[in-house]
Amino acid sequence: MSSNNILPNEILGCVFEYICIPSPGIPNMSLSISHVCRAWYQAAVHYTLLWTYIILDETSGSLSLANLYLERAINAPLQLTIRCKSGRDYSIQSCVVSWLMRYPVNIKSLKVIHISTSRSNYLLPILPCISLSGLETFELMGLNDVELELKTIADILAKTPFLKSLSLSGASELRFHPSMREFACNITHLTIGSLSHIDYAFPLRVDAALEIIGCCKGLLVLECFTLADEEDNDPPVTTLPHLSSLTIGDGPETCRLLFYLAAPRLESFKMAHGKIINEEEEEISMPDLPEDRENFQDLFLGCIRALCHLSNAPRITKLVWESSKVRLELLENCSRYLRNLEEVEISGVSDVSGSIFFPSFQENNSRHFPDIKSLTFFECSLDPKWHHAIEALYRAPQAAPSRNYPRIVFRRCTGKDGKRYSAFAFKWVSVDNVIPIT
Predict the structure, then answer these.
(1) Is 12 helix (H, G, I), strand (E, B) or coil?
(2) What percentage of the chain exceeds 70 in pLDDT?
(3) Helices in 217-257 by DSSP H: which ranges?
(4) What is the DSSP string of 288-315?
(5) SS3 268
(6) Which backbone phi and psi does 420 adopt, to 5 degrees?
(7) Residue 320: CB partners within 8 Å, gap ≥ 6?
(8) Buried b vs exposed e over 28-45: b needs ≥16 C-beta within 10 Å?
């Protein structure tokens, strides 16, 4: 919205209120006030409900807005994001100190803190000095001073009895202080590994990651991205009795984590394509290594076997596949370990054929995944012949719900001939089980 657009505060307030009030079943989409026009925050002054749902994306260009935010938030559950670009961290630090000391009542209601800066050690010492009793989510990128940060993180955990989500990115030598074990047991969502350009050059080691994971015995969700490893390193197996969702980056070193992780209640497994975020906040795919493709596939298959063996064959019902390094057909070799799959999401795969999901297309007519109910393809390269076979299968008179075919969704997929598959291209959209979407 341009600053030249003058609208009554009542109209602007209604728009903001409509956007910010969460709808049932729809995730809350918070707004950022890092760069907004004067008309925006003049109207927002009269609608305090708006402040409950805004995340402050703090940069050096929005210092005055931070004061307004803290003034209007009152006791709302604040969500504070501090994202500083290189060279500006020192100027931001003094401002953050003044906010925290000026609004102690408001800070008690802080629920989310996200710090992304190349000099996080200049901001971390501030946090233990204030009350963080209501903090539920703590995300930190740019770890680079291990000794200072270990003590500071331990102090923060000791003052956050309701902390449920912790994200640590960077610092290859990071270790949990022994005193942190007592407070980390309440964490249910943990994200570790290099997630940003800030700390990608210094990824966390696998043994260090396992040590941190082992402190969080109550984990329900675990995300591990770019990690480093040493060939002669053989850490002990870590058991997570309550873990239900696991995300692993597709790097060979990161995948080795599965050899040392046991999760008997695991239900959802995601192989995520490695990505980092540059200073322009754009995602960049990690470089693919074609010469390592075969070795990586062997490694992945071994990881799946190890995970299922150590976890006593868990009931994994959902698989999300974002990696372009592994051929989809490799799932066929994993079928004996993943026979309980009900939902599969596949994206970025360059050659998709559905034989492993549709036994009618195989000579031996075997069914590798008998319980598949939902199959989603996103930005994949598809075989046109396979689509013709799918179309014939679903349009056949005997294709009734009793045949138990999975629901299929296509999003932004293309054929090998460059043809884009859309709802118009598929003439069988009327079939209930099949929903082609672009």
Answers:
(1) helix
(2) 39
(3) 252-255
(4) P-GGGHHHHHHHHHHHHHHHHHHTTS--
(5) strand
(6) -90, 125
(7) 247, 268, 269, 270, 271, 272, 344, 345
(8) eebbebbeeeebbbebbe
Q: How many CA atoms lie within 13 A of 379 on its CB side?
A: 6
Q: Residue 325: which of 283, 273, 254 has the closest Cα?
A: 273
The total of other beta-carbon atoms located within 10 Å of residue 392's CB is 12
Phi-psi group of 432: left, alpha or beta (phi > 0 → left; psi -120 to 50 → alpha; rest → beta) = alpha
> Could you identify the residue written with the tokens 């953050």?
96
Could you tell me the two tokens for 167? 């994200």
Residue among 115, 112, 166 at smallest CA distance from 144: 115
R_g of the chain, CA atoms, integer Å? 25
As a whole number of angstroms, the distance between CA 352 and CA 329 comes to: 8
CA 134 vs CA 77, 113, 258, 401: distances in Å:
8, 11, 34, 49
| Residue 184 near residue 130, CB atoms below 8 Å | no
β-pairing, 413-415 vs 420-421, is antiparallel
Report whether 343 contacts 319 (CB < 8 A).
Answer: yes
154 contacts: CB under 8 Å, gap ≥ 6: 177, 179, 180, 183
Looking only at the bridges linking them, the beta strands covering 221-224 and 238-239 are unpaired
- Give me the mean pLDDT over the 18-28 stretch: 50
Q: Which residue has the higher pLDDT, 25 or 353?
A: 353
Model confidence pLDDT, tens digit, residues 266-297: 888 888 865 443 334 333 333 343 345 556 66
- Terminal Cα distance for the chain, rounded: 30
Residue 195: both structure tokens together: 């997630």
DSSP string, 165-219: EEEEEE-TT----GGGHHHHTT--EEEESB-STTTTTSPEEHHHHHHHHHH-TT-
d(CA 118, CA 96): 16
Locate the domains of the chain by residue range: 1-148+157-163, 179-326, 341-438
d(CA 313, CA 301): 15
- State the Cα–Cα distance between residues 238 and 217, nearest whole angstrom: 10
Q: In this structure, which amino acid lies at residue 49?
A: L
Per-residue pLDDT at 205: 77
User: What are 5's two structure tokens?
Assistant: 């657009």
Calculate the alpha carbon distances from 254 to 209, 341, 347 in Å: 10, 23, 20
- 78 vs 82, 137, 138, 273, CA distance in Å? 13, 11, 12, 32
